[in-house]
Amino acid sequence: MGACPHAWQHQLQHRGRMWAASPAFRRQLFLLRSLAPTCADGGRASSSSLRPHAMSAAAGPVYEADAEAVVRRITPPLDRARHKGQAGKIAIIGGCREYTGAPYFAAISALKVGADLSHVFCTKDAATVIKSYSPELIVHPILEESYSVRDDERESVSSSILTEVIKWVERFDCIVVGPGLGRDSFLMDGLFLITNNIGLVEDNSLAILTPNVYEYKRLVQKILNCEVNEENASEQLTALCQKIGGVTIMKKGKADVISDGKKVTQVSTFGSPRRCGGQGDILSGSVAVFSSWARHFLLSNEQPKETSVNPMVLGCIAGSLLLRKAAALAFEKNKRSTVTTDIIEFLGQSLEDICPAGR
Ligand SMILES: NC(=O)C1=CN([C@@H]2O[C@H](COP(=O)(O)OP(=O)(O)OC[C@H]3O[C@@H](n4cnc5c(N)ncnc54)[C@H](O)[C@@H]3O)[C@@H](O)[C@H]2O)[C@@H](O)CC1
Ligand SMILES: Nc1ncnc2c1ncn2[C@@H]1O[C@H](COP(=O)(O)OP(=O)(O)OP(=O)(O)O)[C@@H](O)[C@H]1O
Ligand SMILES: [Mg+2]
């Protein structure tokens, strides 16, 4: 991955370097428009960074993450010796005729958090619109919707789209699949697709799912074959992660609750009472960057054997906190008229408050 600051690169262990450079490593870092977590304070994660929290709805222990410590730990310093790409290259796969805002929110948020490059792979109809929102984004109009593909062309079109996407995939530190993909039968929304084809992420410890309340309900029904049980929320989340096999899930809501099937952590810092659409998209772009940074950080710093820190969880914790802080600042200024674009404008200040650029 290219997210490592220059100083860290010198510290990389040979093994870490080889692994980070390998196509397998890169291929596996997928962020699937949902995620969740475990907590630790970055390189020196310890039980002291987790504060047990009495969560009435949960039977198992849920730890309130020391999210500011996580952000400070994993955010790389701005090193003048670094070149373009080293702070992260993120791709968003999403955006169709109906939904052009979602991929834009995710992609621009990744840049505002600190990634160097942000690509969007979307349909031809969505591409010009997304490009017009921002010249910062690199937009690939390569996806197709069913209305533009004849039945007898489906297979050949699919295969040429895949060839084109695969050409690029190796270059990214994290790929966010889903914002604004919609439900078109040819295109298919990321989480909707995953819910019905769980094998796509099974046993992939680099996959993060970030379901909202409806998406979580569908996941629980499909995978655990039961209804969401708020009395037993943390155990159910843990069971879901385990059943899927080691993925990280961030269940979004009043608190963002994160598990990788081992621990359950939450971020409950208050954000905003506005529930305008697109906040989950900001979250996915932010988590993509932070989880890439967390992986670099952990690869660059030898971890004590007894401490197993999951960088995907750290990325979720950091992304959740940043979104919530930005939402709080945007609401303070805009009150009831707060919209997603206002929140994005405060991502920079929120990160600066925790982790000043000149540190
Ligand atoms: N400005 C934009 O372009 C935005 C686009 N977005 C995109 O909009 C799409 C839809 O996202 P939502 O979060 O609204 O998710 P859903 O489409 O899952 O849900 C929307 C609502 O419809 C209901 N629903 C969904 N499927 C149903 C079904 N088969 N039968 C009955 N009820 C059903 C759900 O329960 C929920 O209340 C996604 O692709 C998302 O990425 C959002 O991210 C918000 C911003
Ligand atoms: N009830 C709530 N109270 C406080 N914050 C919330 C609440 N629900 C959601 N949030 C915040 O909004 C973020 C996005 O969650 P949301 O459920 O809106 O996702 P989403 O539906 O996928 O969003 P999108 O509209 O981008 O698709 C969460 O990470 C959390 O910070
Ligand atoms: Mg969403």
From TrEMBL:
<feature type="binding site">
    <location>
        <begin position="212"/>
        <end position="218"/>
    </location>
    <ligand>
        <name>(6S)-NADPHX</name>
    </ligand>
</feature>
<keyword id="KW-0456">Lyase</keyword>
<keyword id="KW-0597">Phosphoprotein</keyword>
<protein>
    <recommendedName>
        <fullName>ATP-dependent (S)-NAD(P)H-hydrate dehydratase</fullName>
        <ecNumber>4.2.1.93</ecNumber>
    </recommendedName>
</protein>
<keyword id="KW-0547">Nucleotide-binding</keyword>
<feature type="binding site">
    <location>
        <position position="180"/>
    </location>
    <ligand>
        <name>(6S)-NADPHX</name>
    </ligand>
</feature>
<keyword id="KW-0521">NADP</keyword>
<comment type="function">
    <text>Catalyzes the dehydration of the S-form of NAD(P)HX at the expense of ATP, which is converted to ADP. Together with NAD(P)HX epimerase, which catalyzes the epimerization of the S- and R-forms, the enzyme allows the repair of both epimers of NAD(P)HX, a damaged form of NAD(P)H that is a result of enzymatic or heat-dependent hydration.</text>
</comment>
<dbReference type="InterPro" id="IPR000631">
    <property type="entry name" value="CARKD"/>
</dbReference>
<feature type="binding site">
    <location>
        <begin position="271"/>
        <end position="280"/>
    </location>
    <ligand>
        <name>ATP</name>
    </ligand>
</feature>
<feature type="domain" description="YjeF C-terminal">
    <location>
        <begin position="67"/>
        <end position="354"/>
    </location>
</feature>
<dbReference type="GO" id="GO:0047453">
    <property type="term" value="F:ATP-dependent NAD(P)H-hydrate dehydratase activity"/>
</dbReference>
<comment type="similarity">
    <text>Belongs to the NnrD/CARKD family.</text>
</comment>
<keyword id="KW-0067">ATP-binding</keyword>
<keyword id="KW-0520">NAD</keyword>
<dbReference type="GO" id="GO:0005524">
    <property type="term" value="F:ATP binding"/>
</dbReference>
<dbReference type="GO" id="GO:0110051">
    <property type="term" value="P:metabolite repair"/>
</dbReference>
<dbReference type="GO" id="GO:0046496">
    <property type="term" value="P:nicotinamide nucleotide metabolic process"/>
</dbReference>
<feature type="binding site">
    <location>
        <position position="281"/>
    </location>
    <ligand>
        <name>(6S)-NADPHX</name>
    </ligand>
</feature>
<feature type="binding site">
    <location>
        <begin position="252"/>
        <end position="256"/>
    </location>
    <ligand>
        <name>ATP</name>
    </ligand>
</feature>
<dbReference type="Pfam" id="PF01256">
    <property type="entry name" value="Carb_kinase"/>
</dbReference>
<dbReference type="InterPro" id="IPR029056">
    <property type="entry name" value="Ribokinase-like"/>
</dbReference>
